[in-house]
Amino acid sequence: EDQVTQSPEALRLQEGESSSLNCSYTVSGLRGLFWYRQDPGKGPEFLFTLYSAGEEKEKERLKATLTKKESFLHITAPKPEDSATYLCAVQARGNTPLVFGKGTRLSVIA
Amino acid sequence: GAVVSQHPSRVICKSGTSVKIECRSLDFQATTMFWYRQFPKKSLMLMATSNEGSKATYEQGVEKDKFLINHASLTLSTLTVTSAHPEDSSFYICSAIVGGGNQPQHFGDGTRLSIL
């Protein structure tokens, strides 16, 4: 069974304090790993797709990396507006539905 | 690009009422749309997958007669919660993809459903 585990559940950072969020996964053949940002009361906003181990993608203060077992979302010098829940999801081969993790709630304090 | 609009954003109604939620892809044609349910501080739970012009595929444990899905066009899917009860209160979110394979899903802003 495909599984996604995100850690930590919650993370509190000072503004400018860089850190990483983890997404560990087990999947029968990875087709894609997705990162989303979700603000309270809103739907998830797409951030990145990673397809193969070794791949990296960046967007502003965010950088996503992928290995065969996990993905990291690195946040460099975060700002309060980066506060949100970050969701990780995987899709296995065969056009199966996405499997989501429970997310990491990030709070960045000014 | 890839904007998904969901309406209404919030519904409060009495027990026994049927509620319809619309999901529209505004700037692309969605071959597939998905309906999720999310409980507080929990992950998204897929309810069903719908393809334009065909019957929706429901996940195990989701009642087809309770949650009616109609994907009438490449830009519109609707979810109707029939005879809603308080236990149906939740945050419902739709998403859509263009093409198939491993393209990212783009999500609407969700509908907060509260049944009194």
Summarize the structure.
The complex is a heterodimer of chains A (110) and B (116). By secondary structure, chain A is mainly β.
Topology:
The complex is a heterodimer of chains A (110) and B (116).
Chain A (H helix, E strand, L loop, with lengths): L2 E5 L2 E5 L4 E8 L3 E9 L6 E6 L5 E4 L2 E5 L3 E6 L8 E9 L6 E2 L3 E6 L1
Parallel strand pairs in A: 2-11
Antiparallel strand pairs in A: 1-3, 3-8, 4-5, 4-9, 6-7, 7-8, 9-10, 9-11
Chain B lengths: L3 E4 L2 E4 L5 E7 L6 E7 L5 E8 L5 E2 L8 E7 L2 E6 L8 E8 L8 E2 L3 E5 L1
Parallel strand pairs in B: 2-11
Antiparallel strand pairs in B: 1-3, 3-8, 4-5, 4-9, 5-6, 7-8, 9-10, 9-11
The backbone outline of chain B, from C-alpha atoms, is globular
**Could you give the count of β-strands of chain A?**
11
Structural shape of chain A: globular
Output the number of helix runs of chain A.
0
Residue-averaged pLDDT of chain B: 91
Low-confidence stretches of chain A: none
- Work out the helicity level of chain A: under 10%
Q: Low-confidence stretches of chain B at least 5 residues in length (pLDDT < 50)?
A: none
Describe the structure.
The complex is a heterodimer of chains A (110) and B (116). Chain A has no helices and eleven strands. Chain A is 0% helix and 59% strand. In chain A, the strands form two sheets. In chain A, strands 2, 4, 5, 9, 10 and 11 form a six-stranded mixed sheet that branches. In chain A, strands 1-3-8-7-6 form a five-stranded antiparallel sheet, with no helix packed on it. Chain A is mostly beta strands and 110 residues long. Chain A is globular and about 45 Å long. In chain A, a hairpin with a 2-residue loop joins strand 6 (56-59) and strand 7. Chain A has strands at residues 3-7, 10-14, 19-26, 30-38, 45-50, 56-59, 62-66, 70-75, 84-92, 99-100, 104-109. Chain B has strands at residues 4-7, 10-13, 19-25, 32-38, 44-51, 57-58, 67-73, 76-81, 90-97, 106-107, 111-115. Chain B is mainly β and 116 residues long. In chain B, the strands form two sheets. In chain B, strands 2, 4, 5, 6, 9, 10 and 11 form a seven-stranded mixed sheet that branches. In chain B, strands 1-3-8-7 form a four-stranded antiparallel sheet, with no helix packed on it. Classes of the chains: A mainly beta (110), B mainly beta (116). At the A-B interface, strand 4 and strand 5 of A face strand 5, strand 9 and strand 10 of B.
